[in-house]
Amino acid sequence: MTTANPPRQQPPLCPPKRLLLGPGPSEVDPEVLRSLILPPLGHLDPALLVIMEQLEEMLRGAFQTRNRLTLALSGTGTAGMEAALANTIEPGDSVLVGVIGYFGDRLCQIAARLGGEVERVEAEWGKALDTNLMADAIGRTQPRIVCAVHAETSTGVCQEIAPIARAAHEVDALMVVDAVTSLGGQPVCVDEWGIDVCYSG
Hints:
Elements (H helix, E strand, L loop, with lengths): L29 H7 L9 H18 L13 H10 L7 E6 L2 H12 L3 E6 L8 H11 L3 E5 L12 H9 L3 E5 L11 H4 L3 E3 L2
Parallel strand pairs: 1-2, 1-3, 3-4, 4-5
Helix pairs in contact: 5-6
């Protein structure tokens, strides 16, 4: 005599409802969720090009920039970091990074992997960089690229960017800013502050 195996418990069709208040994953608006069930558009569909243009215009508003080279990438904040650095750093370039936490350190690591000659200016965790010390380091090292994190996820510290960008431009360096934690939560003024490359997530 055989006995039938008991029926397997099926997982629920919908995950439990959670209120997510961390840096990610994020709550998704119901309108976005409804859009996700629609048939996908091909990457050459004229309608997709219109959607991309609308998205780019909204991103320019969020970043407070008139720069036409504003685009969305499918990826994480670290993917944005890597894209920003890979498109600005050539092997042997001098890169000065202001480090106020974990993601400043990640900027250093990626810049070094791309062949950049990295120099760090560090602040104690939980404190912002002294912009005068950063400006002095820029004047002394004459880097090609200067990087800073606007709001450091690991510590919650917000860094003043405009004085650092001014010092970078005085030596003809590019200013790269990580706005992964700050964009949408506080002003990120790309044009006003003199940011050359800025990414978020």
